[in-house]
Design goal:
heterodimer; A: alpha/beta; Rossmann fold; 2 domains; 15 helices; 39% helix; 16% strand; B: alpha+beta; SH3 type barrels; five-stranded antiparallel β-sheet
């Protein structure tokens, strides 16, 4: 994995950051730093960054993978709506292989459901224009990175008076999930690598309570190897100085105040749900968005009968423990056996940003290859 | 879905101020500017695009960095597929596989 260092833009800077991390880390301590965002998890495995960190510094993979935290019951609910005549199920490609109780959206398509991949919520709206005799339901997922786009699409739908379009809203917000993790009794964390693109929207202020009330440092980070290493340096420097504040390593993209137009669009269309179920984390209060009454006509949950399915995850799968960072992906009983990226049992194995898929694709395959070299037949 | 794709504004539409044509490594698609309405980008500006919406203005250098990061992450192909899919030109006819 170290071979990657030469391919990085600034190999010397990478080496320097890695040395700085080793210098800052107190050898008598064990550090647990959570990267909240699934994009960071993917990058960390892909670039083999673990090899550049001291052994007493552990990166804990957080809940920031929208597909991974969506409970199976919501997928079943969305598919149940799409079972009704003349409904088109539109969703991002990431959703297509996520298993519901009766199979994934893709498997439903094979059985005759009208399932379409869209790359933008505005294209789901466009589908409604081009299919006036059908109802287009957009299965919306994502954190604050995608929620504003869904919101603005609904503003457009209302302004255009489109009646055959609705959104099945599964948007979630990152802050309550971080709070739930910090409240979890089996969790000990020293600091956070804050999400990059979510912060483009919400800015850095919403993290301030983590520093003030929980005394944990946060570094909002970019996605290049050097960004992530620099963010770890920021967190370690604070820990060493006994400080806790929010630092913005990703200033080139993230404004401290966020994107006000995006926040306005969200406020116009969405309100907080009293509670929402997260896979692995359970019910978290005020952690998800629903569509306001003023947009009820474009809310799939208000237009259609929703079964309100609740599904417990397969017993043997330990998605919850992995999602909270209590277990490493390979410590789950199903990892690499019943559950693989080709045949995922849990959602963490579906998305490339899920920690199980990332671990499988980079660590597991590498270990398997090394083992076969080390023990020739 | 979570990809941030860098693109350059190559055409603005006088009749539709909340849309622009962007160029992403030679692929041109219409994106929504509604989330940048407080500070609308102008011709030649670089933006980061999420699910068909320009979300932030960035420098040309950062745009190049972001493209390289996507390549290094093995996500450049997915990013191009996403951009090509904007506007349904390919997406609507595409089989969901």
């Amino acid at each position: 994995m170290m071979k990657f260092v030469d391919e990085f833009r600034e190999p010397e800077a990478i080496t320097r950051a890695s040395e700085e991390i080793k210098r800052l880390a107190d050898p008598t301590r064990h550090y647990r730093i959570m990267e909240v965002c699934g994009g960071h998890t993917h990058a960390i495995y892909r670039f083999g960054l673990k090899d550049l960190l001291p052994s007493n510094l552990e990166l804990i993979h957080g809940p920031g993978c929208p597909v991974c935290v969506l409970p199976m019951g919501r997928i079943d609910d969305g598919l149940a709506i799409a079972q009704q005549p003349d409904v088109i199920f539109a969703a991002f490609g990431d959703m297509m292989r996520v298993p519901g109780t009766q199979g994934s959206p893709l498997e439903h398509k094979a059985r005759g459901m009208d399932v379409r991949i869209v790359y933008s919520p505005t294209d789901a709206l466009k589908l409604a224009h081009t299919n006036p005799d059908k109802h287009v339901m957009f299965f919306a997922i994502g954190f604050e990175t995608t929620a504003p786009s869904t919101a603005l699409t609904l503003v457009r739908a209302k302004a255009q008076g489109v009646r055959n379009f609705s959104v099945f809203c599964n948007h979630v917000t990152i802050i309550p999930a971080i709070r739930a993790i910090l409240d979890s009794p089996d969790m000990r964390l020293d600091g956070f690598i804050g999400p990059g693109h979510v912060s483009t929207v919400i800015g850095c202020r919403p993290y301030e309570w983590i520093a003030q009330n929980e005394s944990k440092p946060v570094a909002v980070s970019g996605f290049e190897p050097l960004d992530i290493l620099q963010s770890i340096v920021m967190v370690l420097r604070q820990l060493r100085a006994g400080k806790a504040r929010i630092e913005n390593q990703y200033k080139r993209v993230v404004p401290w105040e966020g994107n006000r137009a995006a926040l306005r669009a969200m406020a116009e269309v969405f309100e907080l749900r009293p509670y929402f179920e997260w896979r692995g984390l359970g019910f978290i209060s005020q952690s998800a968005l629903r569509i306001r009454q003023t947009y009820a006509e474009w809310d799939s949950e208000q237009r259609f009968e929703v079964p309100g399915v609740r599904v417990t995850d397969p017993k043997a799968a330990q998605c919850g423990e992995v999602l909270k960072g209590v277990l490493k992906p390979h410590q789950c009983k199903l990892f690499g056996k019943e559950c693989t990226p080709e045949h995922p049992v849990g959602a963490l194995m579906v998305s490339s940003e899920g920690s199980c898929a990332a671990y499988f694709n980079y660590e597991h395959r590498k270990t398997a290859a090394l083992t076969s070299i080390a023990s020739p037949a | 879905m979570c990809l941030a794709i860098p693109g350059q504004i190559v055409e603005l539409y006088p009749d539709s101020p909340t849309a622009a044509l962007v160029d992403v490594v030679g692929v041109r698609r219409r994106v929504d500017l509604g989330l940048l309405q407080d500070e609308l980008p102008t011709m030649g500006d670089w933006v980061l695009i999420h699910v068909g919406f320009a979300m932030s203005k960035i420098s040309e250098e950062d745009a190049a960095d972001q493209m390289r990061t996507l390549r290094m992450l093995g996500e450049a192909e997915a990013a191009m597929q996403e951009v090509e899919g904007y506007g349904l030109d390919n997406a609507e006819s595409a089989k969901a596989d």
